[in-house]
Design goal:
This protein is mainly α and 110 residues long. It contains 4 helices and no strands. 12% of the residues are buried.
Length: 110
């Protein structure tokens, strides 16, 4: 057989990407996850021009962390929830959708 099994390689790359993202978040914490998530979200909102994208990503990342911190401090009276829990709850579905869209975009599936 000649060539590359594209669907298999695509699945393997998504799995490797998920593991690497998990490692980077485990090392860097919530800030690393926000740094992975926010620029992708902002690119969809403001476009790919870096002159606008970088400041928008910085501002949106700061707002996201502050809002998650505020929610983590005020959600429960008896204890404070770690900020990373809320950023993971918000970001994990988005990151999964982003990875899933990248795998199906080139394959013709929708």
């Amino acid at each position: 057989m000649l060539g590359v099994d594209v669907p298999r390689v695509r699945r393997e790359l998504v799995l490797i990407t998920a593991v690497l993202v998990g490692i980077s978040v485990a090392i860097a914490g919530a800030i690393g996850f926000v740094g992975l998530l926010v620029p992708h979200a902002m690119r969809r909102i403001v476009g790919a021009q870096h002159r606008v994208l970088i400041p928008a990503s910085a501002l949106a990342g700061a707002i996201l962390v502050v809002l998650c911190d505020l929610l983590a401090r005020s959600l429960f009276i008896s204890f404070e929830l770690p900020v990373g829990v809320l950023t993971a709850l918000l970001g994990a579905p988005f990151l999964f959708a982003l990875a899933w869209g990248a795998t199906t975009k080139g394959s013709g599936k929708r």
